[in-house]
Amino acid sequence: MSEPLLQVERLSKRFPVAGKRGAKLFAVDDVNFTLAAGESLGLVGESGCGKSTLVRLLARLLDVSDGRIVFDGQDLAAVPAAGFARAPQRAAIQMVFQDPTDSLNPRFTARETIAEPLALLSPLRGAAAMARVDEVAAQVGLPATLLSRYPHQLSGGQKARVGIARALALRPRLLILDEPTAALDVSVQAVVLQLLDQLRRELGLTLLFVSHDLNVVRLLTDRVAVMYLGRIAEIGSSEQVFRAPAHPYTQALVSAIPGQGPRVKLSGEVSSPIDPPKAACRFHGRCPQGQDLCGRQAPPEHVMRDSRVACHFAA
Ligand SMILES: Nc1ncnc2c1ncn2[C@@H]1O[C@H](COP(=O)(O)OP(=O)(O)O)[C@@H](O)[C@H]1O
Ligand code: SF4
Ligand SMILES: [Mg+2]
Fold first, then answer.
1. Which of 182, 211, 232, 313 has a CA 20 to 30 Å removed from the CA of 99?
2. Nearest CA-CA partner of 162 in 242, 72, 100, 99
3. pLDDT tens across 110-155, in order?
4. How many helices (H) and strands (E) does the chain have?
5. Which ligand 1 atom is the nearest neighbour of the CA of 45?
6. Which amino acid residue places its CA nearest to atom 8 of ligand 2?
7. Rounded mean pLDDT of the chain?
8. Is 51 exposed, middle or buried (0-12, 13-18, 19+ CB in 10 A)?
9. Residues 142, 158: contact at Cβ < 8 Å?
């Protein structure tokens, strides 16, 4: 098999905790996965499980605490976030953010927004840059007449298209989308998801798609990684994970999708991400299948036919 485009190894991010000297919040803890060129990977899990932190590490917006981010054969984790703006890989990894209103400069027209990364990171200038803006605007279904508008003159869906066009302008090799439809009306969400699916097929994009909505991920991804408290609980082909989830947490998530049979109810609270016990499963205390062992020993990862599952009893 050829080298994956992205190889994430033992990646961790710990934040200091305000008012608690020496304490650390384990936002991302020992995460491993690979992504092949042209593949689409979904990242799911409830709010606070570390999805945004993980993708912000990959986009090099945050410094890494531990681990490697091997992109196209080079370890990006070694490049400080502050220096990444000038790194050669900067143009190759682009991100679409959650809220198109927050992430667009209110003083830039749509055209200026889409052109900005070209001016910073490509050799295109003048008419050649404008031609690229027109091309990418057409790809995302943004009529040329809207390109002279400011964000406040655009609808939510149009702003989302501007954000996607800006990210695509440099022809990135990896496109990261962090809940790109979460801030949109439901009817608009469906249209934007269809657009992303179409772009993925037409442009052969490599996608990392973050969502707390499993249904959305199912539409757009070849594989899915389920996160719980900073760790990957289960990762595998979307087909396998949705049809036969093996981790008790994934089983609960999948059972919440309407039409998936009886709902698995979770008891208890999500435990704290601050200095979590090393010798325990992160899901212990909330897991319907938990046993004594789960409180004493972190589960190993079981490699199954088409997936990898961190649970003592998955095999
Ligand atoms: N800059 C930060 N400083 C301290 N804690 C943070 C910071 N960013 C995120 N966190 C914490 O890291 C954990 C993961 O957050 P996040 O990655 O935003 O999760 P998600 O995107 O899955 O909702 C949360 O407990 C959050 O409070
Ligand atoms: S290791 Fe135990 S607590 Fe963790 S998911 Fe498996 S059964 Fe549940
Ligand atoms: Mg988030």
1. 232
2. 100
3. 999 999 999 999 999 999 999 999 999 999 999 999 999 999 999 9
4. 10, 12
5. 22
6. 290
7. 94
8. buried
9. yes
